[in-house]
Amino acid sequence: MFPIAYCTYALIYGKINLIIINQEVRSMLRIGMLTSGGDCQALNAAMRGVVKTLLNNRDDVEVYGFLEGYKGLIYGNFRMLTGKDFSGILTVGGTILGTSRTPFKTIQDPDENGLDKVDAMKQNYHKLQLNCLVILGGNGTHKTANLLRKEGLNIVTLPKTIDNDLWGTDMTFGFQSAVNIATDAIDCIHTTAASHGRVFIVEVMGHKVGWLTLNAGMAGGADIILLPEIPYDIDKVVDKIEERDKNGSRFTIIAVAEGAISKKAAKMSKKEYKEKMKNYPYPSVSYEVADQIQKKTGREVRVTVPGHMQRGGSPCPYDRVFASRLGSEAGDLILKGEYGFMVGYKNREIVKVPLEDVAGKLKMIDPDASIIKEAKLLGICFGD
Ligand code: F6P
Fold first, then answer.
1. Ligand 1 site, residue 103, Cβ cutoff 6 A
2. What is 175-312's CATH superfamily?
3. What is the pTM of this model?
4. What pLDDT, on a 0 to 100 scale, did the predictor assign at position 15?
């Protein structure tokens, strides 16, 4: 007797002769894999962790790598991968699969040719008779992953992002590597700022959350740290610079998150804020802060933006180990047939978190968190 699911599949696709093939294929473990959203360090290390775990424990595994994120799954653009593809990539930044941003808010809209993208993803998954799809991504990626889970696909995800803003995990891979790079940038700025006696702003990535800025700022000895979660008052920032002047410090280092926001702007309605941004004369908030400091103090202010460097290059040792562990645990879930989870990290343990708990939530810094209190005790000003 053929299992009912196979007969149904065969009837739907009108290919009764596939039943025999299905019987053979069914014994295989077939997994799809994709990386979506902004890249980061250790994506390759994480994928390697998954595949090594599977190949070390089963000899009948097929791996399909979808190219450029969800786009590959939508348009059936994939490559069959073997163990060799995962050899030598532990230390390599970027992603061997390529990535792209496929916004969740339009995922349910048809594409420019009328294609139903969600349906196309499901069809490609079923055509390849995948047992599971492994998705590596951040916030937006997890919303789509959860949608696919609700549509009946077997999904396991891994938390990537330099922003460390995914709900359900204390840490994402990529974060520590980015902290290292942003800290290096602040370290370099320190020496030149001290020589010239200037105020220096280093703009750190993170539009919605400030984990990277907070950690790199503290590690780099920043005097002022401005975060999206703690709206700043420019006069408090100026006070801190003047206090340092009075104490004989000739320079000030300010770490500013891309999404730092003034108290005034934070109080605006969405409409008012949109209006402000329409005529915004600065490339980013750091330049606005620099301009205001210059006008209020007459001090020389410089802005440095390390930008996408923070996402690039080789993963740091911590991320190599961390991503390998997450990948290995994801492989283990697949071997056990447990789906619908993100593999995360909580209280120093690797854990599985239901996807529905992760999707659509941001992990932001609590302004009352102990790390903020400690930073303040150290004399760091948050402009609040
Ligand atoms: O992936 C996260 C992130 O690096 C954010 O820190 C940053 O704000 C954003 O992506 C930049 O996006 P893009 O690469 O699309 O310019």
1. no
2. Phosphofructokinase domain (3.40.50.460)
3. 0.92
4. 40
